[in-house]
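Molecular record:
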Amino acid sequence: MNTRGENGPILVLGGTGHYGRHIIRSLLQKGQSVRVLSRNAANARQVLGDGAEIVEGDITSRKSVVEALKGTKAVVISVSAFTPRLIRRLRLIERDSVLMVLEEAHKAGISRVVYISVYDIREDLIARLHSDIARIKLDIETTLRESGFNWTVLGAAPSMEIFFAMIRRSIMMVPGGGPPALPTVSPVDVGEIAAQTVLRDDLGGKRIRMTGPEAISFQEAARRISEITGRRVRYRSIPLIPLKIVSMVTYPLNPFLRHLVGMIELMNSFPPDVVTEVPQDHQWLVNTFSYTPTTLEMEARARIRV
């Protein structure tokens, strides 16, 4: 049965998350109707305002998913369980539930699907670092490629938030020191690119890497943030081994720490050949989408105003 609404809303899953809220904002600015599935409607309303339709329910519930999909014309999946509260349900939320969403979307006759993934997928790196999160993303991407959906995968570079999140008392403390250069992207840019992508018909079957204008090191980021804010931020590399040992000792009591260490290891192992392709990846975005890219300096200035 085809229940897809050609003029219906776009369903954004993970709509209150780090990227999801920006995707919704960009869609609403374009006059699109948007629907969100949230476990807590009141909290979602507080985060998103009054523009989006909110369906209260859980992505792990087939009944909730079926209800949220009714009448929608497209789905954007920006789901993340990478929080201390949700990490134990990582596989259920990010893999099993997303696969169920795809199954029900197919039944409902919805063809357009945009999936927010990681910047680049390397099976050898996933195997070496035992990255559960990257493996899950790969599983979903593989399913989409083998499906009949009009799909687009948006591989997001690490959020620019990573630079600011590591600053404590004017010191940017980086476990393992970070890679020589790292592509990052503003969540505002992710929101705009994802919104434009889901509204277009010419990007189906593509995997697009989303990055800011350049790849930079944590040390360079600290220097630039210092210049913009007028407050000196010192870069400090701290050993990763003690944190890794603690994560092993405290697991399974604290599974989040183990996953966090895994993500840090993945970041420190960022493939150099992928970094060299950042300028061309970014130029392709500028040529393909209509938006003003956010630089690290712009992000830092925005934080000063806040």
Residues 1-5 have pLDDT under 50 and may be disordered. The domain at 10-157+185-213+272-294 is CATH 3.40.50.720 (Rossmann fold). Residues 90-107 form the longest helix (18 residues).
